[in-house]
Input
Amino acid sequence: MIFEENISLKEYTTFKVGGLAKFFYIAKTKESLIEAIKKALKKNLPIFILGGGSNVLALDSGYDGLVIKIHHTKHIIQDTNVYAEAGLSLRKLIHDVNNESLSGFEWAAGIPGTIGGAIYGNARAFGVNISDIIKEVEVLDKESLEIKTLSKNQCQFSEKQSIFKKDKNLIILSVILELEKGNERKIKETIEENLKSRRERQPLEYPSAGSIFINKEGAEPSSVLIDKAGLKGTKVNSAEISQKHAGFIINTGNAGSADVLELIEIIKKEIKFKFGIELETEIQIIK
Ligand SMILES: Cc1cc2nc3c(=O)[nH]c(=O)nc-3n(C[C@H](O)[C@H](O)[C@H](O)COP(=O)(O)OP(=O)(O)OC[C@H]3O[C@@H](n4cnc5c(N)ncnc54)[C@H](O)[C@@H]3O)c2cc1C
Output
């Protein structure tokens, strides 16, 4: 097994920001993922697990360790249960369950990234969370190298939160989802509607990492607060608060991570000052 060296993280993230990973490995099977982790541990290399790179910010200084891109994608659909390996894209999964007339996943159409990344951040859209359709999650504990199965309860899901955000030793290997029988035409229609709504509301023509902040329970959505604070269109070099969706920071050219981080600080300060609300960042920094 050979790790690639000095790989641009820009190429592996939807934000198109960031420097080089000192070492980089694409794990195409569960077994190769485990082997890569063992090798990194032996060499004392810090490890960052990357899915589709659609909810991360890579730093301009890069990552002084091993970035493992999760790319094992086997999946099996049996009745209403779906087994999916962590590297499978949501796009492919939604397409395949739709072909089997399974309903319960329409809300996720248009969310980029992998099923593993979606579980990590308890992805959510149109009022539905990924945790709503999860039965169990298979994980590797990279400290003990033990593989175990966590029930939905053990995953400690809440809004945009999970045990995986708290315990960085846990790597998601696969998941079992529970869907229900539906009507193929109706499912397709809902997916089309959801995709249309995204095109209308989100600045999909620019690189971004989706919504930068988690919506606070009981408070207005972060995008509404940012809009009310008059911050739409605020720029730091090529990083800009989207005019179309104030929750998104877009990369309009050659933004660096310092530009994005400065813009995040500007937003946090303004929202705290104007509304007394502390915004929590949703995107994860590769560090
Ligand atoms: C245009 C756009 C629209 C978006 N819309 C939405 C939306 O509607 N709702 C929403 O919730 N999100 C949305 N997002 C954000 C993002 O797509 C989701 O959070 C997605 O689920 C992230 O998955 P990923 O595979 O890209 O994860 P990454 O960005 O690769 O990783 C995110 C985090 O998950 C961890 N991780 C990834 N895989 C694993 C694994 N196998 N085991 C352990 N940890 C892992 C990483 O270490 C990192 O900390 C959007 C993003 C964009 C760019």
